[in-house]
Each structure stands twice: as structure tokens, then as C-alpha cells.
Amino acid sequence: MKITHVSNSFISVKINGSVLACDPWVGTTNDNGWLAYPFYKNGKGILNEIKPNFIYISHLHGDHFDPGTLDKLKNKKTIIIIKHFPNQRLKNKIKKIGFKNIIECKAWKKYKLNEDISICIVPQMSSNSSQIEEQIDYDLDTSILIQSNITKKVFFNNVDNPLSTNDLKTIKKKCKKVLNSNIDIVCFPVGAAGEYPHCFVNVPKKKEKDKIINHSLKDLKAKLNIIKPKNFFPAGGRYIIYGKFSILNKDVAQPTFDKIKDYLKNESYDIYNIEGSSKVFLDNKTFGRSKINKLNKFSYDEQKIINFFKNKKYFYSNDFKNIPIANIDEIYNKSLKNYHNILKKLPVRTSWKVDFLIYKNLTLKSNGLIDKKKSVFLKKYILKNNNHKVNSLNMKNSKLKLHLDYNLFYGLLKRKYIWNTAISGSIILFERKPNIFDPNLTFSINFLGV
User: Which partner for 198 in 115, 251, 293, 411 could form a disulfide, CB atoms 3.0-4.6 Å apart?
Assistant: First the structure.
């Protein structure tokens, strides 16, 4: 088994003569403010060099399902592997690109893809890895167990599925039962892959960044102690913020590989850094790594990449440029009605208040805070869920403010863009009080639209 890391969660696994590519994404996303790291010149054609027999798409976020990268693959007969979701949105998007051979896998079932590879899809089992009470079912993410039919070795690719420690205990048992094997090698993302703390304007970012990094390292060790693999490498969740919010890169809470390795230095498993065009070899005898030279030239210079892309426009910049406020008012009122109709059908026992503050050209200062002189404030829209006095976090009310461009807001209400992707994608700024993550509030915003 040869495992090659390309960027973020883009990994290819070669077993004998068969290749399975996971979450192919290079370049910018089509629905947030992220750029894959490292940066590949003309990287969209990378799949044609890898020549996968199978492609696994974990979920529909733009840093995992990238239509631009998939569209460049010449062989549209390549088999695509996804979880069977009741919502067929991911499948339909894949079909629209031109792929017809799509395997929709049931969770926890072994699928023998060919003589070389078997897989088992791991579903999203928790809405958040912090084990905070969830009241809104959120079936989006997946992970994958990949097994060599030759050596029976298993690779667990977590992707960014928010699995709790209890979930990992289940996965270890399921792997033994379904694939009749233990997990030999695993990769986890380390640090924050979402919006906190760099997109929050009312928190001490440096302090919160250090806190998250330290917590993520502790959490990583706990996860590895549950899985007990022989080998580990960090992968997934790494990106660069491009465009007008690129100043936020300095506050993204992701540890360096050296810090990860130092934290795990007394552990019994082997730790490898294969980020960007390196590979590990896993068989009955050896485990090592070597550079791969066939892929397009790439850059590891993060600051150079940031400077090059700092003036690149976001995907929504040229959309809905002249929408009158009256039109936004109308669609917001319809969206609000839909939102409350959906909430009534769910076992929601919590309360919250959300303010949407919309701007014409929301701009940041060099310290990452909103430049109130250059940002043209247009209007505030209020969302309330006041049916309950106390929520599950023992707070009277969760309060969240979202600062965003008006045309992005309109596109989200029209469902041209996806709330969940925009919220985590470094194109919206936040304030919350108290400063505690309430998943039910955040997930509920996905219901706002027409």
C-alpha cells in the first residue's frame, strides 16, 4: 500500500495496480475563501497524472468535492464512491460533471472494489467533536477505511469528520468486525479547520489560537491512544485564506508538523510528514517515505502564496451587485418564515438570537478587525428563536453576530451558495456572546433561505 498526500485531504492510495483518490481538491474552492496548500501550478490536471480507478468524495464541502478538479479528469468512466445520503445533492452534482459510475455505499458495510481494494464508509456520528448536545440531525461528513486485499492492512482516513472519542471506539470495533483487521495507519487533521478564532472580531485571537492548538494536540493523542495504530501522519484541514481577508492567515489555529511530532515524541507509533507530494509505503516489511517528482511544480512558501493571491476576488464578488435593499428585505422575510417552519418540526429546546450585519465591501484592517471607515454598513437583519428560556449550555440566550457582504448574504438566502460552507470558509466575520460554540444555533442557519 502506497499512500501519497497531495494537499489538504487530497490523498491517493495505490494497492498493487489499483489507485483510489480521496477528496481531490487543488487551487481555490468554488464556495469559500480557501486555497489548497501546498499550491500546485496548473494543479487542476493532477488527476490525469494520478490516473485513479476510484475516487472517494467524503462530503460536498468545496475543499473535498471540487467540481473544477473533477471536471479536468479526462476519464469520466472513473468510479466515484460516496456514502448513500437520503439527500441526493452530492450525487446529482457529481453526475452533472459527467460521471455516471457512482457507488453509493451504506455505512459500516464492506465493499470489495476489485481484487486489490476493499473499503468501508464511516458515517458522521456526532455533529461536533466536543460532544456538545445536538438537537439538529446533521448527516454530512464521512470517513473511510481502506483495506488491501493482498496484505489485509487497513488505512483509516478520518478526513474532517467530527468524530468524538466514543465514536472512535466504535470505529475500532467495527473495523475488526467488518474488515477482520486492526487499523495499521491513520491520518487525522490537527487544529482548527473552521472559522475560529481567526474570523472572530471580539476575542483575543493569539490566546485563543494557542488554546485551540494545545487542545487539538491533547485530543490527537487521545484519539491515537484509542485507535492504537502502528503509524500516523497528519492530513486534512490545512489551507490558505486568499483575497481581501488573507490577513487572517496569521490567526488560523493549526500547529506545525514539528510541534505535532514533539508533542507525540514519547508515543510508540511512527509519525510521518508527507504533506504535499510525498508518500508512505505500508506492506508486510517496510514503512518509509520518498519524494514524488511527477506532479506539477508546487510552492511551500506560504507567505509568497498569500501575497500572490491577496487581491483575488471571492466567488460571489460579481454576483447580485445591484440588488436593492427592498429585494433583500423581501427574500429575508420569506427565508425567516421557512426557517421557523422547519424548526417547529425539530426537537429544539434551546434559544438564541442572530444578527446579520451586511455591508458593501466589508474590509479589514491590518490587525484583522473590521475597518469601519472603508466598510459601508447597509443594514442589520435579526433572527430569533425565543420559544425556550434556557438552552442546553445553561445560558439564557446564545447571541451571534455575522458580518458579511450584502451580495453574499443575498446569494445565501437564494440558496445559490451554501450557508455551512460560507460560515466555515473565512468569508464571514463573527461575534458571539457568551464565547461558547452552540452547534444548534450554527447548524440551524442552514435552514435560512428560499
Answer: 251
Residue 29 near residue 42 (C-beta atoms within 8 A): no
What phi and psi values does residue 36 have, to the nearest 5 degrees? -65, 145
Q: How many CB atoms lie within 10 A of CB 145?
A: 23
The residue with cell 487539538 is: 216
User: How far is 111 from 102, CA to CA, in rounded Å?
Assistant: 13
Give the Cα separation of 351 and 398 in Å (integer): 7
In angstroms, the CA 47 to CA 296 distance is 11
Report the candidate in 363, 384, 382 with the shortest Cα–Cα distance to residue 372: 363
Torsion 139-62-276-261 (CA) sign: negative
DSSP SS3 for 327 = helix
Asked if residues 175 and 145 have their Cβ atoms less than 8 Å apart, the reply is yes
Give the separation between CA 158 and CA 117, rounded to whole angstroms.
18
Residues 6 or more apart whose CB falls under 8 angstroms from that of 142 comprise: 58, 59, 82, 83, 107, 121, 122, 123, 124, 159, 161
Sign, CA torsion 146/149/154/155: negative
Write out pLDDT tens, residues 353-394. Answer: 999 999 999 999 999 999 999 999 999 999 999 865 554 445
Query: And the C-alpha cell for 429?
Result: 466575520
How far is residue 300's CA from residue 435's CA, in Å, rounded to a whole number? 34
Cβ neighbour number for residue 72 with a 10 Å cutoff: 18
Q: Among residues 160, 127, 165, which one has the least CA distance to residue 144? A: 160
- Strand ranges in 149-269 using DSSP code E only, listed in sequence order: 154-157, 185-188, 231-234, 239-241
pLDDT of residue 382: 98
Residue the block writes with cell 463573527: 430
Q: Are 23 and 58 in contact (CB under 8 A)?
A: yes
Compute CA distances 267 → 234, 253, 271, 342, 442, whole Å. Answer: 15, 23, 9, 48, 36
pLDDT per residue over 208-240, tens digit each? 999 999 999 999 999 999 999 999 999 998 899
Q: Residue 306 and residue 289: Cα distance in Å, rounded?
A: 29
Statement: the pTM of the whole predicted model exceeds 0.85: yes
What are 55's strand-pairing partners? 21, 80
How far is residue 42 CA from its own chain's centroid?
23
